[in-house]
Amino acid sequence: MKKHFPFIIVGGGIVGSTAAYYLTRSGYPVILFDKEVGQASRAAAGIICPWFSKRRNKKWYYLVSQGAEFYRQFIQDLTDDGFDASSLFKETGTLILRKNEKDLRRDLENADLKRKQSPSIGQLSTLSNEAIHNLFPLINSPWSASLIQGGGRVDGQSLVALLHKAIQTKGGKVVKKDVQLLKEGKSFLIKSDQTSFTADQVLLAAGPAVKDLLRPLGFDCNLRPQKGQLFSIYQQQWADNNWPVIMSPGGIDILPFDNGEIIIGASHEDDQANDLSINPMVIKELKIKAQQIFPDIFKYPLHRVKVGTRAFTDNGDVLIGPISTFSNLWTISGLGSSGLTSGPYLAYQWVNKMIKNSWEIPVEIISSYPLIHKI
Ligand SMILES: Cc1cc2nc3c(=O)[nH]c(=O)nc-3n(C[C@H](O)[C@H](O)[C@H](O)COP(=O)(O)OP(=O)(O)OC[C@H]3O[C@@H](n4cnc5c(N)ncnc54)[C@H](O)[C@@H]3O)c2cc1C
Fold it and tell me: Most buried of the four, 22, 54, 222, 342, by CB within 10 Å?
């Protein structure tokens, strides 16, 4: 049996779900397939504060800074549609711990330079380690910090669940199934169980699995999986403290949520392929690193552990664009460690491209061709 849909999206993480949401919001029928395995969006920490990274990739910076601005509109759109997302994304402020004065000064200068393009940065101030402890009493940092007022965090798991609800309420379909791409003449089919689908437009937003999906069509792509593990601790008395997010120089991030849960992570494991098992040694290493700024960390029982797989390209570019000559088969993947920040923006832009034939992403960022090649 063959069915036809105007839009099919494969992958129901932040990218696929946001794209399906904006399509249904504009009245287009869409079916979203998601096998719900390894999803990075559900496992992510959720920091939305890209402006002061030391990374020098300009394409990356464009996408994450636009992504951080777009969150405000995104959450407002959901709220306007009757889906209360206000507690899922919060500007808590972000403390970036800095080991030296030079970095603190550079943050202040950068804030002035970048605020015009990125007004969401808000105010930036420098806090001593004593002031940090007063603001967030569980933290005893050996270093000072830059406090970025507009930095914040998002609950990726709840946001994806809310998007799935919104898609279905607006008439879209969310199907929790694995699909495959198959070749049919010069075109392709999407297959789930015994049913084959064709579509006017297909978006592959399947994280690192885009590589496996494309192989039967005769393409290989430059995508690799990276395992990420993080853990959380929980105390009821920590609820509603409005503590800021902490980013430390050792790569440990600490994210307090309103319900009293504090998420701490994350690992970056390049040699684990798509393994999703919890490794207690990795969790212990994360705790030891966190102890440097959170001295009592070992006193609290483990609340939960999350494991997900990030998708990376070798040069750090996001994979976005049509697949070779298939103008109706697009992919968005390779969002790396910052896809909760850039994902909604990329998905929204793709929807604009599909339904209005216009988007604001500069042409040099559309990089599917060098990253995907015929086998
Ligand atoms: C531990 C960790 C911490 C992170 N922290 C942050 C952070 O603080 N800030 C930030 O901005 N980003 C963070 N990230 C990165 C971010 O989570 C990812 O870049 C982003 O979520 C990727 O979204 P996506 O929609 O492209 O992919 P995913 O969320 O991985 O979704 C892809 C979906 O496709 C599905 N799928 C795959 N193959 C098929 C198939 N054949 N059929 C059907 N479905 C399929 C998968 O099951 C999955 O559900 C973190 C990631 C991890 C793992």
Answer: 342
Mean pLDDT of 183-189: 86
What is the spatial distance between Cα 256 and Cα 260, in angstroms, rounded to a whole number?
7
Instruction: Give the side-chain half-sphere CA count within 13 A for 350.
Output: 35
Asked if 76 and 341 count as a contact pair (C-beta separation under 8 A), the reply is no
Q: Are 150 and 120 in contact (CB under 8 A)?
A: yes
pLDDT band at 374 (very low <50, low <70, confident <90, very high): confident
Measure 143 CA to ligand 1 centroid, in angstroms: 32
What is the pLDDT averaged over residues 132-145? 97
Type of residue found at 344: P
Pocket test for ligand 1, best of 8, 21, 35, 223 (most atoms within 8 A of CB): 35
Residue 267 and residue 252 in contact, taking contact as beta carbons nearer than 8 Å: no
- Mean pLDDT rounded to a whole number for the chain: 95
